[in-house]
């Protein structure tokens, strides 16, 4: 997710009406309600298991229902609950069928010069958690936070305390090393300041300190992964009505493992999501990301993730729009690692199937499609795409390729 200033909302929002808009909702007792329905990723996938050689293809569909409901207490307080539930269905490979769930809640009390807030999120999905893991594993995330925001006419200052729990359940014998490597608790303190620089441009500065404690305890052969991290970033926020809208944030991060045998990271991090309106009919979305993520790779605590992409959208008629896009991503593992190539033989210590080297993954995605706006509430579209992953030798046995063709239908009640 790009530029999350807080789980509660953008640090620049100043009023209850900004954080809890009533437009598009209807009354249900004391609540304002906004239901939704989407039919996502309905179509063809040429490689559902990301296999090498002869891949397995299938037809799939993901219907999703959601509801957002909140209650306002005069002009001082608000409480909101949101639920999203989807069912991932496969025509032939029925063992892949599963439910995903996202529950979010937040509350706030507004005062003369600011507000206090609290937020909670629970996510349970059975999807590939990152580009390095080809298995669909059950991932559960619990995120709890609270804080306060001070507001002045053209600036804000926000403090947030958070506790995030990450829990993985592999579900496959080949993925048994995933939960020990990634299960963890992250405790963080985030301080964000914003200042309006121009009528539609806001500057921001953000500092974050994080303590990471992994579930797996160190042993004679496994180094301690517990770490601390510090990040300082600056950036810009552009108003949705501006010619360029979106967010940009760049900074430096220092990841310090507790163990001297682990090596950390110190360097540039950031992300951006910007939409440039070239004309009234043409828009260009640009995205960029650079950061570090925890990994399951042997001898590595993290990998460096660098990605960029763009989508060009062209209005073809009053209700019809077309799009083409590209995404590129590079995953660098900074230290020597190992992996199992079963085509070479056994993967025990000293056996030929266990290969070692410095691994770099290059990922490419190309897509195009069109959408039709049936009304202000409903939209239907078609997107086709190609996804590729190439790894440096001796890890090129991890190269993968897949084709997709998907129909998307969305309706907001």
Tell me what the structure shows:
By secondary structure, this protein is an all-beta fold. It has one domain (16-412): Porin, CATH 2.40.160. The chain is built from 2 helices and 21 strands. The protein has an 18-stranded antiparallel barrel. Strand 9 (184-198) and strand 10 (201-214) form a beta hairpin. The chain starts with 15 loop residues before the first helix and ends with a strand. Residues 1-11 have low confidence and may be disordered.
Largest sheet: 18 strands, antiparallel, barrel
According to CATH, what is the class? Mainly Beta
Average pLDDT taken over every residue: 92
The SS-based structural class is: mainly beta
What general outline do the C-alpha atoms trace? globular
- Euclidean distance between termini CA atoms: 25 Å
Q: What level of helicity do the residues show?
A: under 10%
Low-pLDDT stretches: 1-11
Q: Examine the secondary-structure arrangement and name the CATH architecture.
A: Beta Barrel
Q: What's the helix-strand series?
A: HEEEEEEEEHEEEEEEEEEEEEE
- CATH fold field value: Porin
Radius of gyration: 23 Å
Number of domains: 1
User: How much of the residues is beta strand, in percent?
Assistant: over 45%
Number of helices: 2
Topology, number of strands: 21
């Amino acid at each position: 997710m790009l530029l999350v200033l807080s789980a509660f909302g953008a640090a620049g929002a100043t009023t209850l009406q900004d954080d809890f808009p009533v437009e598009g909702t209807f009354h249900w007792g004391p609540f304002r309600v906004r239901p939704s329905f989407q039919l996502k990723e309905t179509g063809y996938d040429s490689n559902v298991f990301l296999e090498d050689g002869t891949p397995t293809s299938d037809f799939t569909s993901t219907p999703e229902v959601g509801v957002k409901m909140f209650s306002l207490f005069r002009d001082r307080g608000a409480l909101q609950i949101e639920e999203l539930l989807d069912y991932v269905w496969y025509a032939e490979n029925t063992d892949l069928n599963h439910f995903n769930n996202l529950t979010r809640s937040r509350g706030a009390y507004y005062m003369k010069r600011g507000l206090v807030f609290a937020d909670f999120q629970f996510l349970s999905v059975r999807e590939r958690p990152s580009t390095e893991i080809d298995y669909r594993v059950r991932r559960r995330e619990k995120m709890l936070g609270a804080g306060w925001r001070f507001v002045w006419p053209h600036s804000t200052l926000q403090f947030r305390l958070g506790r995030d729990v990450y829990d993985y359940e592999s579900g496959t014998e080949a993925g048994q090393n995933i939960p020990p490597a990634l299960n963890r608790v992250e405790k963080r303190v985030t301080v964000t300041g914003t200042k309006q620089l121009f009528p539609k441009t806001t500057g921001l500065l953000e500092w974050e300190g994080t303590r990471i404690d992994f579930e797996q305890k160190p042993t004679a052969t496994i180094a301690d992964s517990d770490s601390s991290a510090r990040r300082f970033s600056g950036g810009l926020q552009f108003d949705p009505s501006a010619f360029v809208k979106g967010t940009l944030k760049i900074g430096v991060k220092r990841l310090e493992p507790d163990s001297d045998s682990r090596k950390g990271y110190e360097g540039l991090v950031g992300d951006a999501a910007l939409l440039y309106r070239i004309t009234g009919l043409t828009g260009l979305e640009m995205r960029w990301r650079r950061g570090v993520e925890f990994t399951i790779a042997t001898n590595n605590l993290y990998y460096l993730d660098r990605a960029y992409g763009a989508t060009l959208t062209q209005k073809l008629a009053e209700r019809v729009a077309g799009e083409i896009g590209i995404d590129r991503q590079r995953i660098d593992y900074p230290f020597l690692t190992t992996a199992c190539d079963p085509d070479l033989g056994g993967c025990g210590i000293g056996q030929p199937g266990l290969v070692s080297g410095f691994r770099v993954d290059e990922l490419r995605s190309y897509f195009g499609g069109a959408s039709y706006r049936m009304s202000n509430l409903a939209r239907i579209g078609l997107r086709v795409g190609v996804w590729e992953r190439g790894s440096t030798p001796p890890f090129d046995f991890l190269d993968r390729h897949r084709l997709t063709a998907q129909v998307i239908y969305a309706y907001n009640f």
